[in-house]
Amino acid sequence: MAAFEVNKESLGAAAVALSLLPREVNQTAALGSDPVAKNLQGSTVGTPLARAESAATVAKGVLTARFNEFAALLQLSADKFAGTDEDAAQRIAAVADLNSGTTDAWMFGPQPRK
Q: What pLDDT is recorded for position 30?
């Protein structure tokens, strides 16, 4: 694993990189499953396929929100960086992973570990 220095500049650069990801997510092509689902109506795969388009739309929204959240967190960490990465590390550790469904843990600061 490559080591890198955590400092105000590296946190800011990571924030910028993450802030670009929502645009890429939103530029991905639509799934396009609706026409196929209509042709397969009543079949075993038709019903789940009919839900795929809306599920893909929700997934794009969730990814966009999470990438924006992580970018804001990294920018906040860069802005508040004071010569040590301890505070930034605690803020970042408080954020749930991408798949957790929890989007606001970082806003309230690190929570005590149980």
A: 84
Rounded to an integer, what distance in angstroms lies between the CA atom of residue 103 and that of residue 77? 17
Percent of the chain topping pLDDT 70: 78
CA distance 63 to 114: 28
Cα four-point dihedral sign 62, 63, 67, 73: positive
Q: At 104, phi and psi to the nearest 5?
A: -120, 10
Please give the pLDDT value at position 109.
43
Q: Which backbone phi and psi does 98 adopt, to 5 degrees?
A: -55, -35
The amino acid present at 109, given as its one-letter code, is: G
Answer yes or no: are the C-beta atoms of 106 and 46 closer than 8 Å.
Answer: no
Question: The tokens 């798949």 sit on which residue?
Answer: 99
Per-residue DSSP letters for 17-72? HHHHHHHHHHHSPP---HHHHHHTTTSTTHHHHHHHHHHHHHHHHHHHHHHHHHHH
Going by pLDDT thresholds of 50, 70 and 90, the confidence category of residue 91 is confident
